[in-house]
Design goal:
Elements: E1 6-11, E2 28-29, E3 58-63, E4 71-79, E5 92-100, E6 110-112, E7 115-117, H1 148-157, H2 161-165, H3 170-173, H4 180-190, E8 205-211, H5 214-223, H6 226-231, H7 253-262, E9 270-273, H8 288-293, E10 312-318, H9 321-326, E11 337-345, E12 358-369
Antiparallel strand pairs: 1-8, 1-9, 2-8, 3-4, 4-5, 5-12, 6-7, 9-10, 10-11, 11-12
C-alpha cells in the first residue's frame, strides 16, 4: 500500500511571505516562474503556447524530489487561457527542472547521447519527497526547503565552470554537456522574457501537502448520489446546465468516480502519485485521453521521453479546484480543462546543464477537457 500513496496539495492561506515568492522550491499556483538559481527563469520557449505562440500564465510550480538522486527537481506547468486555444494540443506545457549537486557517493550508470542518465532504482521514489513518513498536519511540508540558508547551501555545493576545467574527471563529477557557445545561446534565450509586469500571471497561491485519507473517501462514497453532483453544475434556481455548456452525459462513470474520490478533500489542487507507480484519476472515461491511457494496450500510453526515449510514467495531476483558486480574484481568459495529467521520464534522465548545474527538459502533458456542446 505504501507505493500507492497519494499526496494532495491544498491551498495554504497562512503562507504570504515575500521570501517564498523567490523560492523555486515552494509549492505554489500562479505567480511567475522562478528558476532553480532563484534569480533567472526557465527558458521562455517552454512557456509559449504552440497554437497562439504567446507566453502562457504559469499555473503550477512544485518541488518534486526523488530519493537516491544527486539533484533537486522542480515541475513547472503553463496553461493557455486564450479561448481559441482550448481543446488544442500544445495549449498546456510542462517542464522538469534539475538542480544538480555534486556528491562523492553518486553512482553513474551510463552516458547516452552525451547526456547523463540515472540508473533505475527498484525503490525509485520510495522517498519521493525526501521524507520517510508524511505527517497529516499543516505545518509539515515534505517538499519544502525550510530556509534561505538551505537554498544558498544548494548553490555552494554546485561546481562552477572554472572548477570543472581544472578537474580531470569533471564529466563524471558533474554532467556538464554544454559548451560555451551553447551556454551563450541559453543566456540569449533567457533574455527573451519580457519585463515581469508584461507577463500574464495569476496571483500566487501557496499549497501545503497532506496524505489522502482513504477512510474518508470510502465514507463519502457511501453518502454521495448523482443529485449532489448535478447541483454543483446547475445555476441556482434553474434547471439548465450552467451557461448551457455542460451536458448530462458528463456524469458518466468516470466523472462519477472522479467526484466520489475528491469529495473528502474538495480543496485539493494537485494530486502527487507517491513512487510514480500509480494511475491518474480520470475526469472522464469517454474522452480520447482516457481511451489512450486507461484502455490502451500500448506499453507507452504516456509517450516516451524526448531525451532518452524511456517510457514516461505518471507523476502528478492538476485538479479543477486549481481554476477556482487562480481565478478567485483575477480572470485572464478561459481555462476549460477538467484535469491535467503529467507524465515524466521513467529514467528521470538529466538534461543539458549550465555552469550552475541547472537544466530543463520538456515533459508530457495530457489534458481532459470539459465536455462542451458543439
Amino acid at each position: 500500500m505504501l507505493s500507492n500513496r497519494v499526496l494532495l496539495g491544498l491551498p495554504d492561506n497562512r503562507t504570504k511571505t515575500k521570501d517564498k515568492l523567490i523560492d523555486p522550491f515552494a509549492i505554489r499556483l500562479g505567480g511567475l516562474p522562478i528558476g532553480l538559481d532563484s534569480f533567472t527563469k526557465p527558458p521562455v520557449k517552454f512557456s509559449k503556447c504552440k497554437n497562439c505562440s504567446k507566453i502562457m500564465p504559469l499555473i503550477l510550480q512544485t518541488r518534486a524530489c526523488i530519493d537516491h538522486t544527486n539533484y533537486d527537481r522542480v515541475i513547472y506547468i503553463w496553461a493557455c487561457c486564450n479561448k481559441y486555444c482550448q481543446y488544442k494540443e500544445g495549449s498546456v506545457r510542462v517542464i522538469r527542472g534539475i538542480l544538480y549537486i555534486k556528491k562523492k557517493d553518486f553512482e553513474i550508470n551510463h552516458f547516452q547521447n552525451n547526456n547523463l542518465h540515472i540508473s533505475y532504482f527498484p525503490n525509485l521514489g520510495d522517498s519521493l519527497f525526501n521524507t520517510s513518513s508524511i505527517p497529516l498536519y499543516h505545518t509539515s511540508n515534505p517538499f519544502q526547503i525550510n530556509s534561505s540558508a538551505e537554498i544558498k547551501q544548494h548553490f555552494s555545493l554546485s561546481l562552477n565552470l572554472t572548477d570543472l576545467s581544472n578537474t580531470k574527471n569533471s564529466q563524471t563529477d558533474f554532467p556538464l554537456t554544454q559548451n560555451s557557445s551553447q551556454f551563450k545561446t541559453e543566456i540569449k534565450k533567457k533574455d527573451e522574457w519580457p519585463n515581469d509586469n508584461k507577463i500574464m500571471q495569476y496571483p500566487p497561491e501557496f499549497l501545503y501537502i497532506i496524505e489522502e485519507n482513504e477512510r474518508n473517501y470510502k465514507e463519502s462514497t457511501e453518502k454521495l448520489n448523482l443529485k449532489d453532483i448535478e447541483e454543483k453544475f446547475v445555476k441556482e434556481g434553474e434547471n439548465e446546465w450552467y451557461e448551457e455548456t455542460y451536458e448530462k452525459s458528463t456524469l458518466e462513470k468516470g466523472f462519477n468516480i472522479f467526484t466520489k474520490k475528491i469529495i473528502s478533500n474538495p480543496q485539493q489542487c494537485v494530486r502527487y502519485q507517491y513512487n510514480r507507480k500509480g494511475q491518474p484519476l480520470y475526469y472522464s472515461f469517454s474522452d480520447s485521453l482516457a481511451k489512450k491511457i486507461k484502455f490502451s494496450k500500448s506499453m507507452n500510453p504516456l509517450g516516451k521521453c524526448r531525451l532518452c526515449n524511456s517510457q514516461n510514467v505518471f507523476e502528478l495531476q492538476v485538479m479543477p479546484n486549481t481554476i477556482n483558486i487562480l481565478e478567485k480574484d483575477t480572470s485572464l481568459g478561459d481555462m476549460l480543462w477538467g484535469t491535467i495529467i503529467i507524465g515524466t521520464c521513467g529514467n528521470d534522465c538529466i538534461p543539458d546543464l549550465n555552469n550552475k548545474g541547472i537544466g530543463y527538459a520538456e515533459e508530457w502533458a495530457g489534458v481532459q477537457w470539459e465536455d462542451m456542446k458543439k
